[in-house]
Write a structure and sequence with these properties.
heterodimer; A: 112 residues; mainly beta; four-stranded antiparallel beta sheet; 11 strands; B: 114 residues; five-stranded antiparallel beta sheet
């Protein structure tokens, strides 16, 4: 098992810019989810993909979008960055409902 | 809407003490519950996964219990060590078949003093 890998580890962007965060899941993990974690809080669900289709979305605006690819990698795109988007972004994958989620080590995004 | 609460928010104990972290959830229609550990600025490490049909799971010095009907789970850490210092998060996975987002508590920040 190679685990879940996220890149980059840290990123600084200016308000109004766009950012793409990347995640590489384990082979066979058809479900991938993205979470946003503000300092001192629990992770908040952004959206989820199952076999390249979005099948769940949290309370985040449309400027948060994503993609999942056949090779178990995925992307989180955020347009028109705002200061409040500064957070740790976590990717998680799972092979099925009876299994737990495996998380990556996250991308720390700072918007200035 | 599922809500998850963790008590206490922070806990400081001397090394060697046994301790219990609490997690409660409002909707008992869950598929499973997962406990995670998070070191500062890092990702989440899975500790234990309990299916809704199970009462407890054990891994080394860790034991997690689940009482689905009352909406409660506890994480028991035996003989705590300074290396156990971290934030502990519990998360529930809903019972519906479509969409399986995790709902997290805010975490318990544990400090084990040498």
């Amino acid at each position: 098992e190679t685990g879940v890998t996220q890149s980059p580890t840290h990123l600084i962007k200016t308000r109004g810019q766009q950012v793409t965060l990347r995640c590489s899941s384990q082979s066979g993990h058809n479900t991938v989810s993205w979470y946003q974690q503000a300092l001192g809080q629990g992770p908040q669900f952004i959206f989820q993909y199952y076999r390249e289709e979005e099948n769940g979305r949290g309370n985040f605006p449309p400027r948060f979008s994503g993609l999942q690819f056949p090779n178990y990698s995925s992307e989180l795109n955020v347009n028109a960055l705002e200061l409040d988007d500064s957070a740790l972004y976590l990717c998680a994958s799972s092979p099925g409902q009876s299994y737990g989620y495996t998380f990556g080590s996250g991308t720390r995004l700072t918007v200035v | 809407k599922q809500e998850v609460t963790q008590i206490p928010a922070a806990l400081s104990v001397p090394e060697g003490e046994n301790l219990v972290l609490n997690c409660s959830f409002t909707d008992s229609a869950i598929y499973n519950l997962q406990w995670f550990r998070q070191d500062p600025g890092k990702g989440l490490t899975s500790l234990l996964l309990i299916q809704s049909s199970q009462r407890e799971q054990t891994s080394g010095r860790l034991n997690a219990s689940l009482d689905k009907s009352s909406g409660r789970s506890t994480l028991y850490i035996a003989a705590s060590q300074p290396g156990d210092s971290a934030t502990y998060l519990c998360a529930v996975r809903p019972g519906e078949t479509s969409g399986s987002r995790l709902t997290f508590g805010e975490g318990t920040q544990l400090t084990v003093n040498p």
